[in-house]
Amino acid sequence: NDFPYEDTEDQVSAWKEISDDLSSPSPMDRLLCGDVGFGKTEIALRAAFRVVLGSRRVLVLAPTTILANQLYASFHSRLESHAVNVEMVSRFRSKKNIKHIIDKILLNKNDVLIGTHTILNDNIYLNNIGLLIIDEEHRFGVGQKEKIKLFKENIDVLSMSATPIPRSLNLALAGLYSISLLQTPPLMRRPIITRVCYYDDNLIKEAVLFEVERGGQVYFVHNN
Question: What pLDDT, in 10s, does the model give residues 84-140?
Fold first, then answer.
């Protein structure tokens, strides 16, 4: 009810699927796919809230500190009013701050912990985990995925991705993963246009200038 927007049809069906998984006696292992801005974080928030109400902790893994910060801002702003304690561990936190977070975990006063793969290195952070949320799983390395495998056998796992790797999609299609798709754009959201082109400086310049001149943002991803 706190969600300031109207749920899309896909969000409604994805939440029902995840809710059913959380009620099931067997651990959830679900892949939630959807483009940026299609509402994956909202579904993850609801799953986290439900698990916290069941007296278990939630661990949220992000591939970068920037993404961890964004997730922390979203989770904290939505869950704080419901007396849910949300904390974040990153290299930008002081030792004193991290000690304070560890003390909270030991006293069972932490509900949701957000961080990069470094939180997998300390068993204290994994104490009483009921749900593991992995944002952009394809960006984690093999070593990190092996660590995740070691402790995800008996807990619910929700992986989120805008661009799932072929292996994840193959597992989903083979029935080893459950998959939920968010394909409906939110109200007033323009559909995403995807073009595959040869590298062209003029085309890139034109696209960037168009976006900047309309007051938008540009996110440029390059392989080197």
Answer: 999 999 888 889 999 999 999 999 999 999 998 888 888 899 899 999 999 987 677
Rg (CA), the chain: 19
pTM of the entire structure?
0.81
* Averaged pLDDT for residues 172-183: 76
Contact residues for 37 (Cβ-Cβ < 8 A; gap 6+): 185, 186, 189
- Tokens 């560890």, located at residue: 102
Q: Under a CB-based contact definition with an 8 Å cutoff, are residues 43 and 32 in contact?
A: yes
Q: Is 25 exposed, middle or buried (0-12, 13-18, 19+ CB in 10 A)?
A: exposed
CB-based contact 186:39 (threshold 8 Å): yes
CA 184/CA 102 separation, integer angstroms: 40
Which pLDDT belongs to residue 175?
62
84 token code pair: 């849910």
Whole-angstrom distance, CA of residue 52 vs CA of residue 69: 21
